Structures are given as structure tokens and as C-alpha cells.
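Methods, example record. To illustrate the input and output format used throughout this study, we show the complete record for Receptor expression-enhancing protein 6. The sequence lines were provided to the predictor; the line carrying C-alpha cells was produced by it.
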Amino acid sequence: MDGLRQRFERFLEQRNLATEALGALEAKTGVDKRYLATGAATLLSLYLLFGYGAPLLCSLIGFAYPAYASIKAIESPSKEDDTVWLTYWVVYGLFGLAEFFSDLLLSWFPFYYAGKCAFLLFCMAPGPWNGAHMLYHRIIRPLFLKHHEAVDSIVSDISGRALDVAAGMTKDAGKVSVNQLQKAK
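The corresponding predicted structure is encoded as:
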């Protein structure tokens, strides 16, 4: 528990948008920013558990900060932060795909959105206990390496067929257009 408290304290010492807002609120109210941050986290948690807009809030948490951090990573000269956020987006995408098929059932479970939000926060957590990194290296990457050649072959075949169909449709549309123009004259 002390490790979590120390990380929380270190977070509050960093200079970022959240800590600046907490500092301004602390100056106006006289309430310590640790209590303000704890209160905000508690309200957020309660809203995720019982609030009407929990799906939207959870989606914003899972998308807004990672999108911002991804843009910062793209603009930075380092490749390592790019890899961190690409890994997150791979896991996020696969989670979204799995959720598409199970959401109707899972959304009826109590505290589903709180659990989903906790999972997404786990996936974007900094440091060695980053959930996206763990899931990618333990599950996704081994499956990818095992099956990527077969998937590449299927995708190549499908894209070739799609191009053939599109070319045929374009030809047919051109013929129909020419015929219609000739009939109109």
C-alpha cells in the first residue's frame, strides 16, 4: 500500500494539466490537493459504478489520454514511446473487437464499466506493469507469430479478389454510363 501512496505522491508532484488544476483548486479552497485528488477519484469511481453516462466516460478515459499521449509520442524523437502507444492501440483494438461481441451480455453485469475502465487504465499504466505490454508479449505476439503467414495469405487473396471485383464494377459502371448518355442523345 505504501508503494501506491508513494506513486500517488509522485504523481501529485509532477507538473501537468491535472496537477496544475489541483494546485489552483487548492489555492482557492485551502483544501490539500491530495484530498481533492482522492475526492475526484472517488467521485469518478462512483459515477462509473452508478452513473448514467458510464459507457461514455469509460470510452473517454480509454481514448482521450492515450490519443493525446500518442500524438506526443509521434512528435517526439524517441521510438520507444511510439512502441508503447502502438502496443496500447493493438490491445485496445482487440479489446474493442471482443467487446463488440460480448458487450450486450457484459453490460448487464454490475460494475462492468468500472471493470472496463480499470482494465483500460491497467493497459495504459506507465512502467513495467503496463497491461498492454504484458498482454501483447504474453498473448497477442505469440499468436501473431504463429498465424501471421496464414493471415497474410488470406488477406492477400481477399484484397486481390476485392480489387478484381472493384475493377469489374468500374468497367460495368462506365459501360452503363456510356449507354445512358447515348440513349439520352
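Annotations derived from this record:
The chain has two domains: 1-50, 53-184.
The helical segments are 2-13, 17-29, 33-50, 54-75, 80-106, 112-124, 131-184.
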